[in-house]
């Protein structure tokens, strides 16, 4: 008779399972069971805190939180991520129950998926002086204009968070927010800052201007989204420009991201000038990411300034660039960092997928950058001439275009390459319904494209394996065919799906082995450091290092 397996202690269960159990006992209104669950939570969090708790509609409704409070055993929460619909609930009806839940001062990480009310945020910051990471989409103007502005009080609360190391606020920054942003300059441990839409503040104006930075940020990571005028007349009519060296200490900076540089913004020209003035001291920058707005009027000027900026730095390990429709940057800019470059991404907007590095450029770059381990580029398109399974399952040799094969052979010869991301279309000149009948109820159309992507991955990976490639991970970003899709089993957001594949050798006999693409939808979970190279530049996120050689 088989032995019975003893139930696992509650403290050893995964967090998701604990949340599921709690949701279940709460629905049963079983107070004694809830008390046991909460005791298990508390035991599991001593001496360590929870890793993370997501507050969502199924896991932290007001009634459920009230049940926790009445049990007398409130879990110790360290990381709190508040989703949008919960924030709306809090803001409209239940602020009274929300604040008492998190007044023990244990929070280290507080992230709001969208915006957060100024008064609520001020209260929470006062309760958690040891906060290390704070992120939100925007400061909403949730007060009557005739009332006293709440932002000075928020700035005071923020200035007392002396342990804060990370700050992110990606919404449109107005002049009312200047006191809050100025408070960042006095935080001694701040190392990472992400700011969005600096249209009206932190400009190069006279010293008496209230929006002029009070000092410089001694941070290692700086991300600015749309650092410049929007191009519309009602935005920043007196805009003169943002000088990075007046905002941040360039000598300490290790990661710089300038996302969607707008038309008319001279930020790159200013940056190149500032770097040249540093002389032999240089910077410690290791990662540079720059994307120029797709609709920029002065995109040619911005591209020239970008190339000058890239060559002004020394020893970059990661370089990600997007130049709209002007094609890739000059290969000499990439080769300038040949001895140090580990990760390189050349990205273009969807309308310009036919603009890419020539085969000669790729050969030159890979020969120069011996240590390159991650590459994300546009390849020649893969054309599915007819959708039959027989055609899709034919030899990769016959299905890959001659030009594409030449690119892949060049990539396979680079033995240090571990991860490849493909940024190109399949069937670029065909309409979807010429191949598959779309079934709205069963998402048949999306499933059909998923099959094509997987076959394409197998063709590419098998061909690379024939040429003794060392590739470990392959990614396809076919965002423009499924813009509205949420395909199961893929790493994607609403508009930009990504398909990941592990490259594995299959087959029993050594001379019959081949490299196959094994679907790897858990890539983000298991290999979060790949996010740097395997995401769209239009979706800014936190910095991660590139994949390691043994990945």
User: Class by helix and strand content?
Assistant: alpha/beta
Measured as a percent range, the helix fraction is 25-40%
Overall pLDDT confidence: 69
Gross geometry: flat
Biggest pleated sheet: 17 strands, mixed
Question: Count the strands?
Answer: 17
Span from first to last CA? 44 Å
Task: List low-pLDDT spans.
Answer: 1-6, 45-52, 56-60, 230-240, 385-397, 427-446, 479-496, 535-551
Oligomer: single chain
Radius of gyration: 26 Å
β-sheet strand percentage = 5-15%
Number of helices: 16
Task: Walk me through the structure.
It is a single chain. The chain is α/β, with parallel strands linked by helices. Among the domains are: 55 residues, no CATH class; 172 residues, no CATH class. Helices cover 30% and strands 15% of the residues. It is built from 16 helices and 17 strands. It has a 17-stranded mixed β-sheet that branches. Strand 16 and strand 17 form a beta hairpin. Helix 3 runs parallel beside helix 4, helix 5 packs parallel to helix 6 and helix 8 runs parallel beside helix 9. The chain is flat. The two termini are 44 Å apart. The relative contact order is 0.05. The N terminus and C terminus are likely disordered.
List keywords for this structure.
551 residues; alpha/beta; 16 helices; 30% helix; flat; F-box domain-containing protein; LRR_dom_sf
């Amino acid at each position: 008779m088989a032995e019975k397996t003893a139930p696992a202690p509650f403290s050893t269960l995964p967090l998701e399972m604990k949340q599921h159990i709690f949701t279940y006992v709460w629905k049963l209104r079983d107070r004694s069971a809830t008390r046991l669950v909460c005791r298990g939570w508390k035991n599991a969090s001593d001496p360590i805190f929870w890793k993370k708790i997501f507050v969502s509609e199924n896991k932290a409704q007001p009634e459920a939180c009230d049940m926790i409070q009445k049990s007398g055993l409130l879990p110790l929460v360290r990381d709190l991520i508040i989703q949008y619909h919960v924030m709306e609930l809090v803001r409209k009806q239940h602020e009274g129950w929300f604040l008492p839940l998190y007044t023990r001062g244990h929070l280290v990480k507080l992230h709001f998926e969208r915006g957060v009310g100024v008064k609520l945020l001020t209260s929470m910051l006062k309760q958690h002086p040891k906060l290390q990471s704070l992120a939100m989409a925007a400061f909403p103007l949730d007060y009557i204009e005739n009332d006293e502005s709440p932002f000075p009080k928020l700035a005071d609360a923020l200035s007392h968070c002396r342990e804060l190391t990370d700050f992110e606020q990606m919404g449109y920054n107005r002049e009312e927010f200047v006191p809050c942003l100025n408070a960042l300059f006095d935080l001694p441990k701040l190392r990472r800052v992400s700011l969005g839409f600096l249209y009206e503040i932190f400009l190069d104006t006279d010293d008496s201007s209230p929006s002029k930075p009070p000092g410089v940020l001694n941070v290692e990571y700086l991300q600015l989204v749309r650092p410049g005028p929007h191009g519309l007349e009602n935005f920043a009519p007196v805009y003169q420009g943002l000088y990075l060296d007046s905002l941040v200490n360039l000598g300490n900076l290790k990661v710089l991201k300038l996302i969607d540089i707008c038309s008319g913004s001279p930020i790159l020209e200013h940056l190149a000038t500032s770097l040249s003035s540093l002389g032999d001291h240089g910077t410690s920058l290791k990662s540079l990411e720059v994307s120029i707005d797709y609709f920029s009027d002065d995109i040619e000027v911005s591209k020239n300034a970008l190339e000058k900026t890239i060559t002004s730095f020394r020893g970059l390990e990661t370089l990600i660039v997007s130049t709209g429709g002007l094609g890739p940057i000059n290969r000499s800019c990439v080769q300038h960092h040949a001895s140090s470059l580990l990760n390189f991404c050349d990205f273009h907007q969807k309308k310009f997928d036919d603009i890419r590095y020539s085969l000669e450029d790729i050969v030159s770059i890979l020969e120069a950058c011996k240590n390159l381990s991650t590459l994300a580029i546009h390849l020649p398109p893969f054309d599915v001439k007819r959708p039959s399974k027989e055609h899709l399952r034919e030899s990769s040799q016959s299905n890959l275009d001659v030009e594409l094969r030449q690119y892949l052979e060049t990539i396979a010869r680079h033995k240090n390459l571990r991860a490849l991301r493909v940024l190109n279309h399949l069937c670029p000149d065909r309409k979807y319904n010429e191949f598959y009948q779309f079934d709205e109820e069963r998402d048949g159309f999306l499933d059909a494209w998923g099959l094509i992507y997987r076959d394409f991955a197998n063709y590419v990976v098998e061909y690379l394996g024939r040429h003794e490639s060392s590739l470990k991970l392959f990614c396809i970003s076919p965002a423009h065919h499924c813009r509205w899709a949420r395909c199961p089993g893929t790493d994607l957001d609403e508009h930009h799906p990504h398909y990941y594949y592990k490259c594995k050798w299959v087959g029993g006999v050594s001379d019959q082995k081949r490299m196959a693409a094994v679907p790897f939808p858990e890539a983000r979970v298991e290999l979060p450091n790949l996010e740097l190279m395997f995401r769209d530049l239009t979706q800014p996120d936190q910095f991660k290092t590139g994949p390691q050689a043994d990945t």
